[in-house]
Amino acid sequence: MKNITVPDYYPKFNCIGPQCEDTCCSGWWNVSIDYDTFQKYQINTQPELAPLFKLAVSKNTLPSADNKNNYGLMKMKPDGGCHFLQEDKLCSIHKFMGAPALSDTCRLYPRYLNQFGSQREHSLGISCPEAARLILLNPAPMQFGLIEAEPSIDDKPFTSYRFPQLNDGDPQQIAVLDDFRAVIIAILQFREISLGARVMLLGFLLESVDKIISDEKFSNASELMPILESFVGMLADPSLIEAQFEQIEPSIPRKLEIVAQLISQSLGKASNRFKECLQAAFEGLDADKSAAGNNDMLHKYAENYAAFYRPFFQNKEYIFENYLVNQIFTRLFPFTRGSYLNLYRELVGNLSVIQVLLVGIAAKNKGLNETMVIQLFQTFARNSNHNSGHLENLIMSLHSDLQDSFVHVMWMLKDTKP
Length: 418
Fold this sequence. Notes:
Blueprint lengths: L3 E4 L23 E3 L1 H9 L6 H7 E3 L12 E3 L17 H6 L6 H5 L2 E6 L2 E6 L4 H8 L7 E4 L3 H4 L4 E2 L10 H18 L6 H19 L11 H10 L3 H9 L5 H16 L4 H14 L9 H19 L4 H13 L9 H26 L4 H16 L2 H11 L20
Parallel strand pairs: 5-8
Antiparallel strand pairs: 1-7, 2-4, 3-4, 5-6
């Protein structure tokens, strides 16, 4: 079995179990159960478990169900907790049947298992608090390396990239696509320019590549090489990139209105930890006034940004950088789903929403610390990754009334430079 490509944080991760402040065994997850595990649960006669299996485990009747990966579903309690979560915050299935009895979903979380060409990749999602700390708080640029395959993990279901215009089995074309990903990460880690300028440059790269691959004559990934080389060349002149970024016009009232709408849409379904963040941000932003574009509120936002948000992030921009790079790697960005424009909208939208929420939290608490920041990133990820309406609402909010293009998403990046 081949070695696995992983980010440098991956080998350091260990589940902290009952010490976790936001256990993955609660929160109204949609926990799918693979076919083999479902069958084990159906025939189980363990006195402590058998009644719970009958209560909580059922056949998956959703149209997306299959006979291998999500054959069954785990029903949660009304409070969002798992029926098998004990008072000591440990799993009773694990206790009585051992780790091999856990479903693939429970065994693998918070891991992402991907495949790019012939290369397998493992990473972690920040919806887990311990993973979030490892991923976000490292001041050094994220690096990638190889580890030995883990048979108990690597034989589980994985996500593969999609590029229907090309021959997926051609190693030379896959190598170019891998170079594309490498250029994306190099741009996001280019610390000679501000974070906003980096994400702007990423948008221009995606737009340029999108034009090439959308041409009906496009047939070989090698056609992307001149574009990739030209964008790498742009990094030789950081001041020019930053000057271009300064030309983008911000719209703080619209940004605050979008965030206020997302707060109101999320509050009813939020976990207690996420609700704490939203409530603090709501109060700190005076979000009930944002729709009106109140001048006093905008002035207060600018003051809070300068007084409470910027001092913390002035030397910690790497937190956002690590967030973005991890999103690129874990989600096989931009190859797995959707148009490049919508993927860019999602990335920029989530980044900007997180930043505005942090301004509000900073205002409410008269400053920020790492605990607050990790809680917001982690609970936001948990909400957005598992709330089917989040992405739809976000993308609809970011559609331009006049034009639909990458540049008309970039206004969200302004006034976010820590």
